[in-house]
Prior knowledge:
With 135 residues, the protein is mostly helical. The chain has two domains: 1-86, no CATH class; 89-135. The chain is 78% helix and 0% strand. It has helices at 2-19, 26-47, 53-58, 62-83, 91-109, 116-133. The relative contact order is 0.08. The mean pLDDT is 93.
Amino acid sequence: MPxxxxxxxxxxxxxxxxxxxxxxxAFMGLVVNYATALIASAVLFFLTPHEKVLVxxxxxxxxxxxxxxxxxxxxxxxxxxxxxxGELSTASLIVNILLALAMLIVGGFxxxxxxxxxxxxxxxxxxxxxxxxxx
Length: 135
């Protein structure tokens, strides 16, 4: 179920990113996005089991801040990709393939094994990006 939700949410995310009006400042779009996300997250927080608000807030660390900054980067980059003419059918695919390659390297820092199978998959990913870029 979580994978289905992630796929569905990502499809909506990309459709919405491409549909943000070009004449709107991209960052005002993000302000509206985050205000909506703040309200939705707050409602979901109160609908799920939790400790007191301050106890839960105190459990946050730098990773929460870094995630917020990275989400901002992801969102503004996709808005810019689509405004520059990026296609729904390929922009996300190329970004996610390149992300998978980067995470293969990052995984090494977490002592994850880089196997021949993973390297073969990485080679296929690189070939895929090249093929998609030749359009």
